[in-house]
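Deliverable D4.2, example record:
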Amino acid sequence: MKSTNVRFWDVRRNKSSKTVSYEVRWIVGGKSKSRTRRTKALAESFLSDLRQAARRGEAFDVETGLPTSMLPKEVPVTWYELARAYIKAKWPSAAGETRKSTLDALATVTPVLVSTTRGAPDATLLRRALLHYGLNPPRWEIPVPAEEAVALKWLADRSLLVADLAEADVIRSALNTIAVTMAGRPAAATTVARKRAVFYNALKYAVKERKLLEANPIDQVDWKAPEKTDQVDRSVVANPAQVRQLLAFVTYVGPLGGRGTRLRAMYACMYYGGLRPSEATGLRRQDCELPDLCVCVGDCICELPVSAWGRLTLTKSRPGPGRLYTDSGQTHDDKGLKRRPVGEKRVVPIPPELVRILIWHLGEFGTADDGRLFHTSTGGTVSASAVWRFWRSARVLGFSPEQEASLLVGRPYDLRHACATLLLNAGVPPKEVARRLGHSVEVLWKVYAGCLDGDEERINRMIEKALAA
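Output generated by the structure prediction step:
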């Protein structure tokens, strides 16, 4: 902020200093300012410069107290430099998945914010260079391969100044870019919303922390993102018979007794327990309370129940953003539960069907050294890509061509949606459903309101009653 409301005082001896010095005092916009100089002549010279600037009608900066002509000359900052500064500031406190989504968004808009596209490197190469090196703080100190180095040099030399982003056309071109995939097809509404939020926050950083822009230019642009819905599409929700069918067919994926069979219990946890994939990945033996069940053939001699409920006590999750985004350099992060304080637990009762599946799984495959239930044959963490790949293969084997081509339980995460829908339609109180899933009741209704059965029939009866009156 600047002001022309300036008053000056005469130079005086600085009494607070043991060595001889002289103090220049003045007021800008009601705020007192002062500077000290070693000699009275230097102090008088500095005061003279200030008075001359005021006589010329220059505005004074309220924070520094200096006229415009005496402010330090700022070196122009490019968008690429700002993006690097922004990600460096956010990196230490961000989770791996957040780092990944932030880099993804910045790597999408940064190649567009250039003065010219002449001589531009291949788009895939430039994106890889940004994700692996240019925008990834922990990798700034390692040597960059020649091809990627050339691509980043081209970008750095042509990146627009941050001041240029005040132009509406520049911002609009960046927003249009996040609305499409690299293949040129319309991007999903959730993807557009996520990338826009990152871009907006980077520009907010330029405004509030770096003082490089007067206002966030996105607010000045008339641009509408695709409408996003948080509600689950009913067409993805499978019924119990369909889920059992896929859990059976996943065991046929891969070699007999191999990866598909290893993952069956993991998928079962997502459906019968409503676990997120990252929570299932982090599930340990000590988190499972599994009752002893009768295994007698013929007449029972053990007096154990044939079926009984168990309990999972969830404390950890293991999201897998990838090695580029974790502090450990491993594919997965060790974290607490999503959006919950560190150390908070979530107790999930599990039905007898899942109890039997988990008991069989532990007997067949045991645990990893750290107690994890789901692991590779060498004890490693099951990758997110493998969880997706085996599920897709199970759908090909277990579904008809029409079902396989549909959205029906197309992703492993849809098993969790099917669990929530089953519980709500079974009449379980929404508060209890939300607790088991790790949601708030508000989020539960927002996401699953479209998956409830019976409302249409009930409403139709109410209308018929009104019409008959």
